[in-house]
Amino acid sequence: MAFTSFNRTKPPSFKTNATLLATQVLKGRWFMLYACFLIMSSSGATYIFGIYSKDIKSSLNYNQQTLNTLSFFKDLGANVGILSGLINEITPPFVVLLLGSFMNLFGYLMIYFSITARLPRPAFWQMCLYICAGANSQSFANTGALVTAVKNFPASRGIVLGLLKCFVGLSGAIFTQLYLAFYGGDDSKSLVLLVAWLPAAVSLVFVYTVRIMEPPRGSGVGDSAKPFYYFLYLAVALGGYLLVIIVVEKVVSFSRAEMIANGAVVIFLLVIPVAVVVKEEVNSLKQSMAVTEQRRSGIDASCEEEANQRKTITDQQSIDGASSGEEETKTITEHKIISHLIEIFRPPARGEDYSILQALFSIDMLILFFSTICGVGGTLTAIDNMGQIGESLGYPSRSINTFVSLISIWNAMGRVAAGFISEIFLTKYKFPRPLMLTVVLLLACSGHLLIAFGVPNSLYIASVIIGFCFGAQWPLLFAIISELFGLKYYSTLYNFGGVASPIGSYILNVRVAGYLYDREAERQSGGGGGGKDVTCVGVKCFQLSFLIITAATVIGAIVSLVLAVRTRKFYKGDIYARFRKEAPEEAMERGSSADKVGEKRIDGEEIIMEMDFTVR
């Protein structure tokens, strides 16, 4: 009967092809990746804190150290995503995205109500809670979108991380332009309102699109780099447009209509990558249909015999496993605690799947964690204080907004450059990623020194260097974690790596920069500040702070160099070999199950090969 049904199969109509293509696009891996791009492009509100921090400071009458403490809780929320990682280990990604949407809306909406006096002035601990909850939604978005994308493209993780982190970096400039289009730019407090509702809305739209999927049948584990380069070109085009429009806005005053038109162009540039998605899914659909035709021509009576043999073997293994399992249970129970403790300090080889505790107690993780505290903590201090740095050095407000936008754009360029360049160097020259991290940290020192010595007009260059280096550290950090410790518990380990950021921010931003700024401001005011908002003027406001930050960054570079030496043999090998070995076996398993699905008949005439046209 199965052979007869194949002979009577009708050729698919145009309507059927269009439906299959639409289904392939909406359920495919590439549209999932595009959805992750949009989620990430709206999840970087913490990077524009420098714009609306002045409103918080003036509305609630905070001094600089109090504001920096609030900034610390922002960084704490944005980077401590262990909770979101653990939730993602046991639930689908949509649960994480839904929780993140709610937290974002609640946190930033409460901040907006507070600074606009729609609510009674909150206590400081309440503001810390609000901004920590709102910023923590970023870790939920990162976990739900970024971790899922890396697992769906394991052999291209460096490129995927670079692209996704690029869109996070651009999000600050995107928020600024959409804020001008939606609200006109007259009241910067409205920016907080935009930050409250826009990321939540984007996550809700794509909440069921982001999910773990297997590569399509017939494709290897390695994906063609061509579509990633298309995405790269479009991301660079978006960043270039934002950079040009930011420069033009500082020279020309835009009318309301021009602001709206500019916002429409930004949205259009965000939609263009759909063309790449459709192109790749069409190719995937053609490949899937070709595999289906080959399978149809090769089906014979031996399929049922092979299926019966597999069933017999499986049943026998189940019987054997049941009998032997009872005997092994007692032994496992007796030595369970001791064996787990021993396993923690006997991790597998680098590149294999570590358990969470094995990774956390690993010397490699501790080294990486310390270097991240020094590197990210220093650059984040510069970013969070950019408004006050520009003000103390006598730059006008328009230039300060330019600094924030430059940091956002070059943050994005650093992320995508680190992702692509490190992947190319690793593939062609076996250049270890930890060594690339060392280079980035040393480059960041030049930006810190420009701020420390207050060279005239050097803050523009310092903004570019700081933004680039801050962005470049993240894809390197997360790629190194995935390569050294595996992908099995990547959701949790990814978020643990981010914990280094608030620790570095608290030490270098609150305890160093904030304290020294207020001390200099008190000295200039003759001790009459009384703990309230006092403005510091001159190079001395941040000079000692950034000399200390430079020294800390140099130490971080030396420590990361130690990690590069420890892992040099690992990176000289083929770190993606295990994925290429596993791919053929997984493809055979998926193929055998799809054969059974493909033999189902609908109305006795058409055969719907659903498993061949959709990517699960």
UniProtKB/TrEMBL annotation:
Transmembrane segments: 31-52, 94-115, 159-179, 191-210, 230-248, 260-278, 356-383, 403-426, 435-453, 459-481, 544-565
Compartment(s) where it occurs, according to its Swiss-Prot or TrEMBL record: Membrane
Ranges for domain Nodulin-like: 29-278
Membrane topology designation: Multi-pass membrane protein
Coiled coil regions in record: none
Annotated ranges, domain NFD4 C-terminal: 362-571
The protein's name: Nodulin-like domain-containing protein
KW Cell wall biogenesis/degradation (keyword) present: no
Chief location of this protein within or outside the cell: membrane
Disordered: annotated segments: 300-329
Organism the protein comes from: Dendrobium chrysotoxum
GO CC, one annotated term: membrane
Keywords: Membrane, Transmembrane, Transmembrane helix
PANTHER family: FAMILY PROTEIN, PUTATIVE, EXPRESSED-RELATED, UNCHARACTERIZED NODULIN-LIKE PROTEIN
